[in-house]
Amino acid sequence: MTRRRAVVLCEDRAHWHFARAYLDKRGWNTHQLQPKISPSGGGSAEQWVRNKYPQELQAHRAKAGEEVALIVIVDADMRSRDEHIVSLEKMGTRRPEDRVAFFVPRRNIETWIAYLEGESVDEEELKDYKTFKRGHSRTKPAKELARRCIQSPPSKAHRLHSLPHAKSGRNGSVNPLAPKRNRLAPLARSTRNLPSREIRRLRDKAQRMCEDSAQA
Question: Structure pTM?
Answer without folding.
Answer: 0.70
